[in-house]
Design brief:
- Chain B: This is 3-oxoadipate CoA-transferase alpha subunit.
- Chain B: Belongs to the 3-oxoacid CoA-transferase subunit A family.
- The complex is a heterodimer of chains A (about 240) and B (about 230).
- By secondary structure, chain A is an alpha/beta fold.
- Chain A has one domain (about 35-235): Glutaconate Coenzyme A-transferase (3-Layer(aba) Sandwich).
- Chain A contains 5 helices and 13 strands.
- In chain A, the strands form 2 sheets. Chain A has a 10-stranded mixed beta sheet with strand order 4-3-2-1-5-8-10-11-12-13, sandwiched between helices. In chain A, strands 7-6-9 form a 3-stranded mixed beta sheet, with no helix packed on it.
- The longest helix of chain A has 10 residues, at about 30-40.
- Chain B is α/β, with parallel strands linked by helices and about 230 residues long.
- Chain B has one domain (about 5-220): 3-Layer(aba) Sandwich (Glutaconate Coenzyme A-transferase).
- Chain B is globular and about 50 Å long.
- The longest helix of chain B is centred in the middle third of the chain and has 12 residues, at about 105-115.
- Classes of the chains: A alpha/beta (about 240), B alpha/beta (about 230).
- Chains A and B meet through helix 3 and helix 4 of A and helix 5 and helix 6 of B.
């Protein structure tokens, strides 16, 4: 395997013009707007597993489309969170939050749940991430090689097993460092697994040539986006 | 007559050895065999390896077992979670060995053990830190990791219904790891909310057939607490 390495500050790629030099014309998308943007691309009929954080919010935005949400603790057909008085004490999702079950839903045990995932029966998994590399490598489980007790949960199984892996994350860290990079510096969750990235600034596909820009949020210019991205952005032919 | 129903916790725990691997059902606070874990504490078995998705929360149940120094090693996918204070303390002090295992791989390792499969290839974790030291092999152009079956000396299970043959049903998300661990151990001990007469559980609804179960203890504690939620 390739040992993850930190990129020293002196080696920041030449594409990295300080982002503040090219300001954004409008504020970036909010978390809810990012979730809504992801949801807009999910067609009726897909079976979808949502990770913790912004991915969980995607379910609130699929509107009338029938999408089957899978939770890896063995629930198929997850519905919205219940009102407090309607909580069913035995019905939780993989984040241990109370959920409801839609008509048509079902329960399986953990081995079946992950067989479903590993066997390619889940159309889409949406996960959060620390970094995505231009070849589709994902880092989302450990922030350091020195953390000897990171929590992986089902992330590696989902990243390796789902038919499509979309990652939703802020385009940069709070310090303005790009999360879309040439090579991940954090420990990897899965190699060459990500197929599409949704950030608060853009929608980007992982293509053979690298990051392929599909869409920019309102008020974002190509130069401003490139300045905030750690690897070359390609435009569709 | 086959009768796997035992009357006391002492009978349920009889013969649980020191030094063995103990598989725990449960995910989060649902479907976790907490009464049996308390019984294991009372029984006194020590030097245990625990297989559980989480490394315990708060000070009760698995956390208490660990705090008493009965656990040598824990195999889990998600050691750090809200309230995993005992794990943190022991791990930091070097008093607990940890093996991180992806959740699906952990489930499949136990499923394989129950099905007599010694090892299997999975794409999960290929090329990552968690594949370190394991055989990796390319099959039809994709890299897979060889993972070994994970068998327990004992499995502790929480079920919704049981009968004297050991047939089991589960409740909603309380199913989770329970049927998986039930099939993967030499001695499978069940705590059940309801005991049914033989034949009263619809055969179409049995999730774990009694062939996997050794002992059943009736523990009708009710619903898991939703306090603080």
């Amino acid at each position: 395997m390739n040992a993850p390495t930190m990129i020293p500050p002196t080696m920041i790629p030449p594409t990295m013009i300080p982002p503040t030099m090219i300001p954004l014309a409008r504020p970036p998308l909010t978390r809810a707007q990012m979730a809504a943007r992801v949801a807009a691309d999910i067609p009726e009929g897909w079976c979808v597993n949502l990770g913790i954080g912004i991915p969980t919010m995607v379910a609130d935005h699929v509107a009338d489309r029938e999408v089957i949400f899978q939770s890896e603790n063995g629930v198929l057909g997850v519905g919205p969170a219940p009102a407090r008085e309607d909580i069913q004490p035995w019905l939780i999702n993989a984040s241990k939050a109370y959920i409801t079950l839609k008509p048509g839903g079902s329960y399986v045990h953990h081995a079946d749940s992950f067989a479903m995932i590993r066997g390619g029966h889940i159309d889409l998994c949406v996960l959060g991430g620390y970094e995505v590399a231009q070849n589709g490598d994902l880092a989302n489980w450990a922030t350091s090689n020195n953390d000897t007790a990171p929590a992986v949960g089902g992330a590696m199984d989902l990243a390796a097993g789902a038919k499509r892996l979309w990652v939703v994350l802020e385009h940069t860290t709070k310090d303005g460092q790009p999360k879309l990079v040439e090579t991940c510096s954090y420990p990897l969750t899965a190699l060459k697994a990500v197929t599409r990235i949704y950030t608060n600034l853009a929608v980007i596909d992982i293509a053979p040539q690298g990051f392929l820009l599909r869409e920019m949020a309102p008020g974002v210019s190509f130069d401003a986006l490139q300045a905030r991205t750690g690897a070359k952005l390609h435009l569709p032919d | 007559m086959i009768n796997k129903i035992v009357q006391t916790m002492a009978d349920a725990m009889a013969g649980v050895p020191d030094g063995g691997i103990v598989l725990l059902g449960g995910f989060g606070h649902v479907g976790t065999p907490n009464a049996l874990i308390d019984g294991l504490i009372e029984h006194g078995a020590t030097d245990l390896t625990i297989v559980s998705n989480n490394a315990g929360a708060g000070r009760e149940g698995l956390a208490k077992l660990m705090a008493l120094g009965r656990v040598r090693k824990i195999i889990c996918s998600y050691p750090r979670s809200a309230g995993s204070v005992v794990f943190e303390e022991l791990y930091k002090a070097g008093k607990l060995e940890l093996e991180i295992c992806p959740q699906g791989t952990m489930a499949e390792r136990m499923r394989a053990a129950g099905a007599g499969i010694p090892a299997f290839y999975t794409p999960t974790a290929a090329g990552t830190l968690l594949a370190k030291g394991k055989e990796e092999r390319e099959i039809d152009g994709r890299i897979y990791v060889l993972e070994r079956a994970l068998r327990g000396a004992v499995a502790l299970v929480e079920a919704w219904e049981a009968d004297r043959w050991g047939n089991l049903t589960y409740r909603q998300a309380g199913r989770n790891f329970n049927p998986v661990v039930a099939a993967a151990a030499d001695l499978t001990i069940v705590q059940a909310q309801h005991i049914r007469d033989l034949g009263d559980i619809d055969p179409e609804h049995v999730v774990t057939p009694g062939v996997y179960v050794d002992r059943v203890l009736h523990l009708p504690y009710g619903d898991p607490s939703i306090e603080g939620k």
